[in-house]
Amino acid sequence: MRQGEAKEDGKMSEFQQELIQLAAVIKGENILTSYPDRVGKNMTVKQGKDYMEKAVRRFFQAGRYAKKMGVSNDHIVQMKPSLTTRSSKPTNTNP
After folding, report:
1. What is the pLDDT of residue 1?
2. 80 in Cβ contact with 28 (< 8 Å)
3. How many structural domains are present in the chain?
């Protein structure tokens, strides 16, 4: 248990980084080539908290939407990363 205020601008612990990797899997970002090498490595505690909250919120929304569409309760919702979370290098087709 923490004995004081959270150091939101501080670097995340190894355990916190592992929780961010779990959030990345929930978001479907584990299929990206940057996972797990870069996910959460340079985040502050506050950024990690925000990332985790958004991942869980998005996962629950997808589950509720699937249920609303009549998907069986036995079905596992698999998330796909959004295009805005991908970092890619521009391709040069004109040398």
Report:
1. 58
2. yes
3. 1
Q: What's at 61, amino acid-wise? A: Q
Q: Output the average pLDDT for the chain.
A: 79
pTM of the complete model: 0.70
Helix 14-27 vs helix 45-68: crossing angle, to nearest 10? 30
- Whether 61 maps to a domain, the answer reads yes
- Residue 2 in any domain: the answer is no
Instruction: With respect to residue 86, please indicate whether it lies within any of the assigned structural domains.
Output: no
**48-87 pLDDT, tens digit each:** 999 999 999 998 998 888 889 898 888 777 777 765 544 4
User: Could you tell me how far CA 38 lies from the centroid of its own chain?
Assistant: 12
Alpha helices in the chain (DSSP H): 14-27, 45-68
Three-point CA angle 81, 85, 87, nearest 5°: 115
Which residues form the domain of 25?
A: 14-69
